[in-house]
Every structure is written in C-alpha cells, then in structure tokens.
Amino acid sequence: MIINHPILGPRDAQEFTYLGDANLIDRPDWRAENAIKAFHDYLHLRDNPAGEHRELWFHEQGDRSWLVVTRDTLTHEITSVELARDVARERGRGK
Amino acid sequence: MTQVNRLQGGLISRDRTLNFTFDGRNYQGHPGDTLASALLANGVRLMGRSFKYHRPRGPLTAGSEEPNALVHLRSGARQEPNTRATVTELYDGLEARSQNAWPSLKFDALAVNDCLSNFLTAGFYYKTFMWPAIFWEKIYEPVIRRAAGLGEISFEDDPDVYDKGFLHCDLLIIGAGPAGLSAALTAGRAGARVILAEEDLRPGGRLLAETSPLSDQSGATWAERVRGELVAAGNVRFMPRTTVIGAFDHGIYGAVERVSDHLPQPEAGKPRQVLWRIYSKRAILAAGATERPIAFANNDRPGVMLAGAMRAYVNRWAATPAQDVALFTNNDDGHRTARDLIAKGVNLAAVVDVRPNAPKVDGAALFAGAEVIDSSGRLGLKSIRIRLRNGETRDISCGALAVSGGWNPNVHLTCHQRGRPAWDAGIAAFVPGDALPTGMAVAGAAKGDLSTAGALSGGAGAAVQALRTLGITAKPPDLPEAEDMAVSLKPFWHAKGTKRAWLDQQNDVTVKDVKLAHQENFISVEHLKRYTTLGMAIDQGKTSNVGALSVMAELTGKSIPETGTTIFRPPYTPVAMGTFAGRSVGKEFRPTRLTPSHKWAEERGAVFVEAGDWLRAQWFPKPGETHWRQSVDREVLATRGSVGICDVTTLGKIDVQGADAAEFLNKIYANGFVKLPVGKVRYGLMLREDGVAYDDGTAARLAEDHFVVTTTTVNAVLVYRNMEFARQCLWPDLDVQLASITEAWAQYAVAGPNSRKLLQKIVDPAFDISNDAFPFMACGEITVCDGLRARLFRISFSGELAYEIAVPTRYGDALMRRMAEVGAEFDVIPYGTEALGVMRIEKGHPAGNELNGTTTALNLGMGRMVSKKKDCIGNTLSEREGLNTEDALRLVGLRPVDPTNPVVAGSHLMAEGGPVDAAHDQGYITSAAYSPVLGHSIGLGFLKRGGARKGEILRAVNPLEGVEVAVEVVSAHFVDPEGEKLRV
Amino acid sequence: MSDLKPVTPLGGETARVDTIGGLTILENPDWALASLSARQDHDAEAAESAKDFLGFDLPEVGAMAVGDVFSAFWIGPRSWMVAASHDDHELLVAEMKIALKCAASVVEQTDGWCRFDVAGAAAFDLIERSCAASVRAMLAGQVVHTTIHHTGCFLIRDDGGWSVLGPRSSAGSLHHALVTAAHSVA
Amino acid sequence: MTYSAFRILKEALTGHKGWGPQWRDPVPQPDYDYVIVGGGGHGLATAYYLASKFDQGRIAVLEKRWIGGGNVGRNTTIIRSNYLLDGNEPFYEFSLKLWEGLERDLNYNAMVSQRGVLNLVHTDAQRDSARRRGNAMILNGSDAELLDADGVRAMYPFLNFEDARFPIKGGLLQRRGGTARHDAVAWGYARGADRRGVDIIQNCEVTGFRIKDGKVLGVETSRGYIAADKVGVAVAGSSSRVMETAGMRLPIESHVLQAFVSEGLKPTISGVITYGAGHFYCSQSDKGGLVFGGDIDMYNSYAQRGNLPAVEDVMESGISLIPALGRVRLLRSWGGIMDMSMDGSPFIDRTHIEGLYFNGGWCYGGFKATPASGYCFAHLLATDRRHETATAYRLDRFRRGCMIDEKGQGAQPNLH
Question: Considering only the top CATH level, what class is A2-90?
C-alpha cells in the first residue's frame, strides 16, 4: 500500500506502523464518574467497519509523524491522510 | 542419432551446440532452445509423470502455464524440483532428471495407481482409512505421502543469493507481445517513465511463434527493432526474463527477474533472481492468452499438446514433437498450426475439426464434423481414434496431436484484488471484469482481443488512455499491418465417452471426477475445486478451470458464468521462496547491533548472546573455567566484592526536552516526575492504557526542561513510539520534543564497592563524585579523561554502590579499555548479561520475565507507585476488579528448602500436600539463578496472595522435566534488603 | 583534550573504503551532528536563530542546505539535523544551544549514526537494490528517510553520489548490505 | 450411507452410481428451534453437536455463500493445544481430544494427523516461558516435551543450526498436535449434521435480526425471514458486521492473514514447525505442498488479500530457518479475514439480547478450536450454561479486567 503523507507525499506503507481506530485520540477524562467504563469503551470497542475507516498510522521509518488515514477496508483505497496532531487539536485535545 | 525432430529455421543459434543430459542421457541443443524444445528436437516426448495416477506425460504447452513437463533441474544443493522444461532456457551442461517416477520414468511402479483409478476417484480418501485409528499416522498416511508430491528437494542449503529492488514508473507494461510493445512505443515516445516487463528472454510474445508478417517483416524482427528503439530512448526500461507475479494495492506490482537461471550457476556475487517491487502510476496488462485443450479419452499422452504450442515449437524452436502429426480443433486458429506444420515439412496425418463446415487445409486430410475420442500409445502417442460425422470411428496413427479449443485471456493479474472476470460469449472465454486493480488497463489478447492487429492498436490505445490520466499527451505510433482475423468461437469442451478424459492434467482430474463431485453435491465452484483438487496444480488451473466449469455447467444445466468463476491468486507463476526472502536470510536475517565494547569483549573471549537485535556479552570466560557457571559466579562475586563493568548501551535512551517535559513524563509514567529535582534520577514504571505494566527504567533530570529517559532493551522502539503518540495525539499542545539517543552514547554500568574509586580515576577532578556531592540517584553532565564530555548517573541494578557512565559512542571502546586499565588495582572485571541477571534476581528487580505483559504494578509489588492524584496512561483501567482481586499474584522470592536443589524458571507453584493440577495452580516461577553470594539457587515468581505468605513452603513442580522442588516463600530482596550498600 | 582514541562505527581506527568494480563505499565518520527541534510556538524564533547560526535558512521538507561551515537537512516536522566537521565542531551541540537558547531543543546525534558515501556509475543501481526510495527522481540536495536492511536510514543525494546515514550500532550490517548490493550491480 | 473401504470397493465395481449428495440443499423452513448463522467450521460443528449430543430440535445453518468457505477453507490446518493460560488450555485440550475421535464420530476421514507441533525457542527467556507453558499443558492433562537443540536437530536436521542469526536452543514439542485436512472438516461436519436432520442452507445471507423486548425472534435473510427460538452467530471474520445489525459493538478488529502453499514435494517436513525468532510456521500436506504462514498484514481489512511486505517477512523467516527451501517455489497465496480480539482470545457467550448467542474472536487460531468451539457453543445454546472448558470466553471480560492474553500484548489486536 502507499500512504500519501501530507508532508512527504506518497510513501510505502511498510515504512509505517499501524495502530488502529483514530478514535484512540479521544482519550476520556480520567476524573469522570464513569471513567472506567469510558476507558474500557475507548480502548476496546473500536470502530471496525467494512468500508471507510479512520485509523492511526505512525511513520516510524520516516519523519515520525502520527497520521490519521481514511481508508476503505474492503478495497484499501485511501481517500484522505492528515497529521494526527492537527486532528487531535481539532478534536479539542491540548495539554 | 541426434535431434531427429529438428526442423529448418527458427530462432535458435545453430552456430553453437549445447550439451545437456536428461535422466543421465546426453543430448544436444542450441542457444535459444528451452529444455522442452531441445528434448522434442531429440525425439523425446516423455518428460514426466502425473501426480496421482503416475501417467506418462510430455509437454502440453510451450510456456509458463505448463502442467506436465516438470523435472528436477540441476543437481546437488542447486536441485530444483518441479521445474517446467518449457521455460527452462538451455545452457551448456544443463542437467535434468525426471521426477515422481520410480525406478525410472519409463517403468514407474506407481503407475499401478492408473489401473486402480476406479477406486481412486475424487475424494476417495475422505471415505476410508479411518480404521483402526492408529493406522493413519503409521501406515496409510506415510504411503499416501510418499506416493503424493512431485519433486524432491536436496535438503542442502540453497547456495545462491537473491536480491530485492525497487522501481518507480509512470507506466508498467506487463508483457512484451504485440500489445505490450505497441503500448511501450507509444508511451516511450511520449517521454513517460516506462517499465516493460517480459517473462520470456526476448520481446515478441506470440509473434515469435507465428509466421504471419508485420507489414514486410517477421514478427520477431519487428519486435527486435522496437526493442532497439525503446532501449535507446532511455526512458523505457525493458526487463526480459521478468515475470510480474502480483498486483498489489495502489499500483504496486511484484516482479521476479531471473538474472542467472539461464547460466550453469550465477556469477560470483550476482544474484540468482531479483524480486522487484514496482511502484507504478498506471499499468497495462498485456499478458496474452493461454490456449485451452479439448478433453477426450486418454488425451494426456505424451505427444498430445496444444496447437499453439506445437506451432511455437515448430516455428520458433524448429522442433517437432513427431514426424507424423494430427490436429484436433474447433476453430480457425488451429488451422494455422496445420499450415505451419505443413510448411515446415511435417507430415500432417489428419485435421479433425468438430465444425461440419470447417475450412479445407491444403496438404492434409480434413475430417470436418469429427471428434477425437481416444488415443493409444503407452509412453507416447501412437494413434488417435476419431469419430466421424456419420458416427463411424477410425484410427489414425500419429506421434503427436495438436489440440485447440480456443484461447483464454490471461486474466490472472486482474483478479489479484479479488476482481472477478466476465464471460465473453463471442470468444467463449472469461475476459477481465470491471473491477480491475486501480490504475490497471488491459490490452491485446489478455483483454480478449485475439488478433495481432487488434493487439497492436489496443496496446497503443491503452497507453494513450493511461498517460492521458497522468496528464501526458501521447499519440499512437504508425503500426505495421498485421493479421486481423475475426474470432467467433463455438465452444467444444469435451468429446463424450465413458473413459477418463483429462481436464487438469497435473492433478489428474478427469471429466468423471467432475461428474462425481456433482453427484455428491460439490457443485459450487469452490467445492468442486477443493473436492477434486482441480486447478490446485502449479498452473493454478490456467489450462483446466474453464473446461471443468463447462462440464459442471452441462451437469447443472446452467451457463458457465452462472456456474461460477474462480479467481487467481498471486503469484502468476510459482516463485522460489528464496526470491521473496532476498538477502535477509541466515546471519543477515536481521541487522546485528553491536555495543561499543563489542570488539574489546571479543578480544577478551566473551560469549555473546542475542538481546533483540543486539549482541551482548553473556559472560567472559577465564582460562581454566570449563563451565559457564564458574565464569558467572566469579563475575558476581568480583563485582559484589570490588568492582565490575557491564556494557548497558543497549538500554533505550530517549532525550526529552521542552518546557512541559516534566508534565509529559508525569503522563507517561505511573509515578510522578514533576517534583524530581534537577540533577536527580528516578525509577519509573510505564503502564499500557489497560493498566498492565509494560516497561520500566529511569528518568534523569539534566535541566528543568531536559530529561533523559531509559527503557528496557527490548522495548526501546515501542516506548519511543508510544511517547510520540502521547505527544502528538493525546497532548498535542505540550511543549516537548523527543529524540532517540540510544546509539549516540556508550553507557557502562560500573558496580561494586570500589566503583567510585575506579571512577574517580577517570572523572576529571573538577567534578566531585563523593557520596555527599553525588549521592544515590544523582546525575550530571561531567567530563572524563581530560575533557571528554560524559554523563554520570548514580543508579544501581545490582544493588551495589554503582554508577552508569556515558560517553559519545566513538569513545566507548577507549573508555572501556581505560577503565579496565585504571581498575586493575581493584581487580576490576567485566561482567556479562548473565551476571547482571543473577545480581538483579538477588536484588529482586523485575525484568522482562516479570514484566511479561500480563502483570500489573500490583502484581509486581509496586501498586502504591501508581499515582491516583494525576492522570497517567493506564491508571484508570488498572482499577478494574479483575486486576485487584484478593488472590492476585504477587512477586515473591523463592528459595529451595534443601539448598542443594535448583529453582527452575517455568515451574508452577502448588500448595504442599495438595493436588498437583491446573485447578490448584498457585503461581509460577519467572526467573531463577544460582546465587553465589547465598550459595544456593534462588528464584522470583508470582504467587497468589504472595505478599502474605512469607515462610510458607510450596512445591515448585516441573512435570515437563520430571522435577519437583520444595521452596520457601521469602522476600524478593535476597541481598541487602534495606538498600544500605547503595547509599555509601 | 582527552586522549581517548575514537573508533569508527565499523570499529576501525581509520575509515574503511571499499571499491567494487566502479563503485566506492566510503565510511565517513568525520561529521558532528545535532538535531534541532523548534519548541512549541517558537518556530519563527528558532528559524531566525538557526539562520543566524548556520548562515542560511533551514531547508524545506525533504531538502538539505549546505553552507561553508554547516549543512542541515530536514528530518521531521519542525526538526532538522545540523552537520559540521567533527574536527572543528565536536561540541556542535554546545554551540547551537548558545545560539538557539530556548527556541529549540538541541540534541547531540554525532555518534547516533554511521555514514557511508557511495559513488560510481552504478550507484543508482546499488541504491535501487537497497531501498524503496524513488532514487532516480531525486536531485542533488534531496534527502529521504527510508529503510535499508530493516534499519531506518537517511539517504542524501549530493553532486558526487549518495550518502547513507544509518544507526551506528548496525553499521556492520548496513555496510554488509551495501557491499553485497554493490557486488550485485557492479 | 456409511463410508468405508468396502463401500468404495462396491461402488467402484458398480460405476460409482450409489454415491449420493454429502449433504442436501433443503428449502428453508419458516421457523426453527435453533438457527446457526455461518456455515463455516464452527457453525457446522455447532449444528452437528447440537444435533448429535444435545437437543434433538429443528436446526438450521444459514450460510451466505458456500459452506466451508470461511476460515476453515483458508487456513494452515494446524491442530494443537499448547496454550499457557488457564482460560485457554482446558478448552484447546478438549478440542484436541475431540479431534482425536473425530473421524470415527463423523464417519469422515478429515486426515487428522498427529505428527507433532514443535515451537522453537531461541533464547533463555523463551525457554523459561516454554517451560512454564509446557508445564501448564501437562497440568491440564495435555502432553508436552521440552527439547534441547540436539533434540530438535534429531527431528529436523535440515533446520539452520550453523548460520543462524538467532540460534535454535530447543523447542517445545506437542506430539499430539499436527494437522487436519481443513475442507474435509467442514464437509464431515456438514454431512454429519445433515444426516441428523440439520438443514444446511447455502446462499442465504443473514441481513439482520428481528428483536423484540430484548429477545431475538428470528433472522432476516436474503431468502426471507426465518424465525428461531435461539440464534447462534459463528461468523468469524464478519463478526463485527453481523453483530452490528443487532446493535452490538465488539472488542474485535478484522485483519487479513495471508497463507501460502508451495508446489507439491515428496515428504519434506513431517510435522509442524514454528519459528521462534520470526513469523513463520510450516507443515506439509498429504498432497505434498508445504503449507505455511506468518503474521497478519497488521491493518484492518476485509479485503481477503494482503500485500508484499507480509509475504516477504514470512519468507525471510522461513528461509532463515530452513535454507534448504530456497529453491522451493511458492505456488499460491491467499488471505482470510481474522477476528482479532483485544486479548487474542475468543468469545463463546450469551449477549445482552435474550436468545442471541455469539461465537467469534478466534484471531488466527480458530481452526484447531473447531470441534470444541462447536461443542461448547452447542452446550451454551442448548443448556444456557457455559461449558466447563469455556467459562472464560466472556464478552464482558475486558470490563471486568479478566483478560486472557497469551502473548501479553494488551489491547492491540494486530499483535496477538
């Protein structure tokens, strides 16, 4: 597979390490009342669609950026690649 | 008498004669020959035996789809089983032997299977061999296994090497036949970066086998001229002997280049083959088509071959399989073979054409509306029996029969991303479907465009089209005039009869087998394949699948496309496993990482051990030491007695800087780091988000905004990755920057009561490392040996007064030598990982065996380290009930009740006097060692409620090795439990 | 200055040179290296200070810039590797820390890497058999991070050929991979 | 019809006219006592055991395409019970015991071949953990032997002992492990179930569940609605997709695993060998092909095909372990969809919907589990109680913190 890195352009997916569902960015609040349940769901109940999937890849053999890749799990077609850091900020993550 | 069946002409170089042997007999051929063509020229038709019935077989084809003519090529360690004689280029000294035959190819004992064929039907083995049970492994299966299989391996290590390579192009063209060549001309002239891959040794494809001209020149000449232009252009890479084996995602193709297979052996240093990974923006599949046979009784005898193949042997290789030949066809293309044979002076005994209105053939008897219904000849075809239109039968003697049932486009690669081919009734064949791999187009015969003119114009058109999508303007070249015969095929699949008619020749699947499968409800194509083994042979059914589908379609009354399609899987043709492995084998399987003191340790005779990709000194034997324990015991005692040095460079080191560095570490580690003062080190435990401990190490604060974190050797990459995840994805606004510095610094542990004295001899006087100035857990940047920058950490894994000192790696070797030199007065010794392990077990420090990915801080006895006052990875889920039960495992120390007994890691712990079984398992021993300090074996282990069981006697059972030892539960800190030695 | 004698990544006192056909593979330990990563919200300041120090602008993505004394290449978002002669700038990090103050994190990388310079007519072929980078499209001054024999390496194209920077501890394996590839194509 | 050598003889002499369909193609009935969704190995085994060992009720197996077309039709055929953890080992040992009697039970030769499964060890730490595992196996009533390097050499002298990057230091051998003819397992269960009245309905895709007041009433299918008292889902690979239609999210990801077969060879490798320093396991089928595999491709996928890096990784390991295979040609590769669970262990459990049961999450170890999975699932369906060997395979185990993590990798499915 080829991942079109937003900074570097197309690179062989072999340079990347796969993590999984991009919702892993949305780490719950540890102080919330139902934190254990929230963390359980966050960690274990991930998106697993047959179709479009937003997922985290790490350019370990490259520039060490974490990316959010939108990829179809039936065809492997990739429709968008973003820097995970940007996505994380958009989703309200900060310090 | 040699080369009795050699004809005039052809694309072979008669100016050289090549000697070769087959089954020990000498033969001659010429450059340009394949093994099959040379054997045919020498009058040899019998080349192999079939898989199940051990039927005599000769070549069915002249290409890579060959199912029959499989041989052992070469000998000794280079023996290659199952090598297709049809694509083996002849070289001088070639050695080939037949396979799957004993005692000889001509007299094969297992040909008895053929007589038993009525019992050995499809799937017979599922219905028997069940009684008595023990007979399966002992009797039935060994017999089956010996009879099955085809070739043999030598069991010697393959002496050849294989390369990998990576290529990038705008357009990959697969196949250099007329379609591929015209596509390459078009794209080449437009300036695109083109790769043209061809499995044959020269361009031309089918043109090399045909006699019809391209304008005023032969097809082969035209192909050579095109090659010349392409190679000269510079932007086209023509790759002969290169088979594209797979279409992978996003325009990536795998291709195998056979660099040295046409040579007796590779030149020194050169690879046998190269696996190319080709990154293409667009691809054109111009892989041609494969002719299909017509099934009839005993249609598998040596001498029966596809008509196009026979034409190729005659035209390209000037070899005929026999002097008297017949043709069996249902289409006009078959008649080309007749014409070419006659032109070459081969006697054409009969043309049998199933079409009542078949065209006449000058120079041969035509039997229109007739069928071949049987054949005879034990080791090679002697005669065929035909059924005339009026129902009469007639025998015609001939040594070879050319069979043509039409052509199947080579859709193989179009299916690699699970696209299904579509049925084209016009040519009665499957053609590429709509769902092609992204970026792929198909042209020429592979698309079902079976005329040469169609291939030429189709190839050019496909190239124009493909380049247009890349923004490159191309125009079709002037193409030569070529035959443009329309193909309209009325399929004829098999001649009816009661005898066996072969569909899959290699796997011996006959029409009868398909009927039986139908009868037993194996009607789905996948069931049919799996039940009969149809299409499982090395051609993946290229010559058999459609024929079998036609039989099933007849039986079910459905059409062929309704009956189903099978799809092809990579690779296109079989590929040597070594080719996929490339250079990363043997000692080079993975890179070897060496520590800075490696050379020095080698000089000292160290024994090395793998630690991940690292090689580390395991122990340093001294003269007279005959057992590793002697060396290790000595190293431990010497270190604890005075001072020892160990290379700990392999521990991961990560530089953490930024205004929020401390806050960042607070989130990464279970315990707190914000309050760690500058100049101090702290032990840290890392949890996974699921609350399980996964790594530990230290963090040294070199400045307010600067830490150096260490990880375990094996987890260095993982921790660094996880830290980047936390930094970029979880807390993207923290000001923190990370860099791996594992390799940049040589780091040595200097341990033992005299460690400070030794260090004082190398640390520059400006730096006070006395106990007061540089206490336990201090760290700092210093200089050593007169000005060399260094980092010093007062940390201890051994439990002794100890330090770790780091210098830039290039000085690591010299520093080790210097420390050995200045430490001589303290009898300093180097110690290896084994002594390191003993000392950490004596001290009760957990390591990889304890941090095994299932244990929590609670299990490790560090439950209180997990801060509940801050957010950190893993703290929330570590609170789940299942991880905090009453009887949770706790790390304990274990010592044998009888001190002469060993404690063995991997033993399970059982209560004294209780039953020994899984239901009563109390825990297990993780690490064990002989403690030279204590004079007996010791162990660490996890024990249910272990914290409250000190003094209890348990059974450490090891039924695997038949050993049981009584052990006492003790503190895990065997040596210096209060840690006094650390602080002096 | 310290009398501790340095060794090269391949363990020799002097750098190793291999000549295979028309190809040369030269071990080149003569570089001091330091990485520079801009601190959060200090990008402009870091770029400016770096320019003052280096004498040129920090290069763009995938590029290397070369000055009289220093060179620098891009290694990741907001991060660069700075190189200088080891003999003259062994304490490169200290120099840079002074220049960049709190605008960037500077980390000594000198001995994190081994470097092999590859030159000769078949150098393209050699690199093509070593890594997936689109080497024939690379121009002088371009840099990619790629994988060679399972290790992460920087591949730098310059006028004379190629430089491969790989992790120092694997220098022997990397060297072996380059030499065997050289034999294949030479 | 009972299969036997005598029967083959008789049929051979009478033109093979007597062989009937191995299973029928019945028309689906409007309702059943039990509907099993998924005609793979586990679904067919479940139906077989339900019919033969438990309830005599009306049972249907609904298969989207053709039976045996799931992972039972595309695996590397290994059977073994060499597990470490209490939650797993009794179950897999139960499975192995069922394998041992399977052919007589089914009257179908599935070529269960106990030629030994050897896990190589390359480091002292691996040997320690192999010892712990071997002991766990024995304590659970299974068999295990710890071999040293010489013991391994005696079995397989052609392994790389001389030039290995990671030398072989020994191995954990389970002699009762081995292989079975994977397709025949599906067919044998299908025939056995069919003979006991189970309706096996192919080309019948379940598109949803009819659920009312927290209770399942039946399934919607491509061939119409079918009512059922109890519905058991065994569709590994598609678990998330199917259970999503019941509103459930599962602790499962779908990944692609490639497997490979070589050209046919005369006897080369007698048992199963797994490399301990890389991703490679290998055996030889009775037909002569070497059957081998390695790691998954690492990314979520339903594409049933993989890419080159995983192929190359497997071959690097394979040739590093067995250099004599260098010239053996790979014939065909294929890819299957794996239910990779969050701890690498499966689920056989009730769901929060009454009457709806789930079986899945087999990662890439489902084939060997086929008999016990079917038996335990049948047990659960028939009795509403978990079978004693499958009590740990609960869907709520992550919530409770009771993971069954053989590899110690945590909630990272692609690493299990």
Answer: alpha beta
